[in-house]
Amino acid sequence: MPDIGQTLSHDTVVERPRSGGSPYSRLDTSDQLSRLGGMKVTEIGAYEAKTHLSRILAKVQQGRTFYITRRGRRLAELRPAPADGGRPAFGCDQGRVVVAATFDDPIPGMDDYSR
């Protein structure tokens, strides 16, 4: 039997078993989302994450999510970054915003305040 967290091949990592009763007793939101999306969240030790960071980042780039643990406790979650939309292109709202022709006209009753 391989050790927990030991890499068996390029894509296989032995996962740490969860402790404490039913596997559904302590679900957090990210676990539920990963179950809905069909993406398995893998737990890896901090030492393994440091040792194989480039391989792990390649898998994250493909959409995988990892929990980095120390002594069985989750410390961090490594997941793909949200797509960066960047700056909007100049004129992208053209035709969506309409400025009335009376925009610059004086406001009735504000003459006393504008001098």
How does this model look, in words?
By secondary structure, the protein is of the alpha+beta class. It has one domain. It is built from 3 helices and 3 strands. It has a 3-stranded mixed beta sheet with strand order 1-2-3. A hairpin with a 2-residue loop joins strand 2 (65-70) and strand 3. Residues 6-14, 20-27 and 29-36 have low confidence and may be disordered.
List the helices and strands and how they pair.
Layout: H1 29-37, E1 41-45, H2 46-51, H3 53-61, E2 65-70, E3 73-78
Parallel strand pairs: 1-2
Antiparallel strand pairs: 2-3
- Strands, total number: 3
Return the average pLDDT rounded to an integer.
Answer: 75
Beta-strand content bin: 5-15%
Cα-atom radius of gyration: 26 Å
Biggest sheet descriptor: 3 strands, mixed
Which geometry do the CA atoms define? elongated
Percent helix range: 10-25%
Distance between the termini: 86 Å
Number of domains: 1
Q: Report the uncertain regions.
A: 6-14, 20-27, 29-36
Biggest sheet, strands in spatial order?
1-2-3
Taken in chain order, the helices and strands follow as HEHHEE
Counted by DSSP, the helix tally is: 3
Classify the secondary structure makeup into a structural class.
alpha+beta
Oligomer: single chain
Defining traits:
single chain, 115 residues, alpha+beta, three-stranded mixed sheet, 3 helices, 3 strands, 21% helix, elongated
Briefly characterize the structure.
The protein has three helices and three strands. The protein is an alpha+beta fold and 115 residues long.
